[in-house]
Amino acid sequence: MERANQSVVSEFVFQGLCTSRELQIFLLLPFSTLYLMIFVGNLFVTVLIITDHRLHSPMYFLLANLSFIDFCLSSVTTPKLIIDLIKDNKTISFGGCMSQILCVHLFAGGEMVLLVTMAYDRYVAICRPLHYTSIMDTQKCIWLIFISWIIGFVHAMSQLILILELPFCGPRVIDSFFCDIPLVMKLACVNTDTLGIMINAESGVLAIICLVILLISYTYILLTVQLHSKDGSSKALSTCTSHIIVVVLFYGPVIFIYLWPVSITWVDKILSVFYTVITPLLNPAIYTLRNRDIKNAIKKLKNHR
Length: 305
Prior knowledge:
single chain; Olfactory receptor; 76% helix; receptor; transmembrane; GPCR_Rhodpsn; globular; mainly alpha
């Protein structure tokens, strides 16, 4: 009977990045510019890899998928953030909030697995070069991409199912710029301590397994490069360095937000901006600036003009 008398929350209100109206207006142009750069940069990398036949290899196919996922991850939160910078009433419907949670975890979970797949590709290319073409054929590559999306979807659905039936009867203010599970759970009308442990455990297991595999893979790769002759070592190390930088940029903020026991609101907001805006912006730049094949493809494109 008590549950029946509770009013159901139909929408949530975002606090946003800050409370200062002047600062919000000031941030409008920078964030709009950053999102435009994310859109252009990731789309450019994806189209370049698709259209240039010299980039039709598993490594670049995986990179094109990474660029696509980065664009999708940023698009879940950044356009809403930009629109809310000029709005006084920063609301999102209950369905919109749940959709944000689903999509953020779908793309973030898929990216975790995709980064592991990219590490496996580099392991085969550097540690078993003679067997690379037979191990990383087109069919295998497509399957690995498909698996990363499936794991991301299962992860996202498991997170969403756990909070979808929670009763929300007020307050309805989320101290962030998008719907994040820990912040949404705080607004539930029931105790969510046990549920929080379950959600963190599921996310933590996926993140830690992927991170451990990545650390082992790149340690083995770097040791292999160091122990063998230096022919081609420079290119191998350059490629691995790009991957490692991307892994650090992605996992750093995620670990602090979801696995760090102490939560500081302004720190969480900065880290959320980092992995939803800054990382998707930097990834195409890192691979473009450090990759000789992509730089050559860009030069060829310029010459054709």
